[in-house]
Design brief:
Layout (H helix, E strand, L loop, with lengths): L1 H5 L15 H4 L13 H16 L9 H16 L7 H9 L19
Length: 114
């Protein structure tokens, strides 16, 4: 759900919107009624992001948008066909995900008031 809610602004007809990290970076987003229960998972993803950046061998600066989208990619890949991770699933996780989503610097919560 976090992956969907963070990407909810995507519009295929204009070059804007999509996964932007606001769900992790803007505290007001977690106060929206549809996001109330995401505070636990988002806290875990923030901790993972901090560990990632603190690791001495980290080779890329990962955005909050990437962490959220990778989490959903990981979950759906892990559960595909049969739960667990085998060689093919690991290969998919290592090669199929595209990193590089920028975090939005000015998260707007107005659109959520509907």
């Amino acid at each position: 759900r976090a992956g969907f809610h963070d990407a909810g602004t995507y519009d295929q007809h204009v070059p804007e919107g999509g996964a932007n990290g606001c769900l992790m970076n803007e505290p007001l987003m977690l106060l929206q009624h549809e996001n109330f229960f995401l505070d636990g998972p988002i806290a875990v993803l923030k901790a993972i992001k901090e560990l990632w950046h603190d690791h001495p061998e980290t080779c890329i600066d990962v955005s909050s948008a990437d962490i959220i989208q990778f989490a959903i990619f990981f979950a759906t890949t892990r559960q595909k066909y049969a739960p667990g991770l085998d060689y093919e699933k690991w290969k998919t996780l290592l090669t199929a995900f595209e990193w590089g989503r920028p975090d939005e610097t000015e998260c707007l919560t107005d659109w959520t008031w509907n």
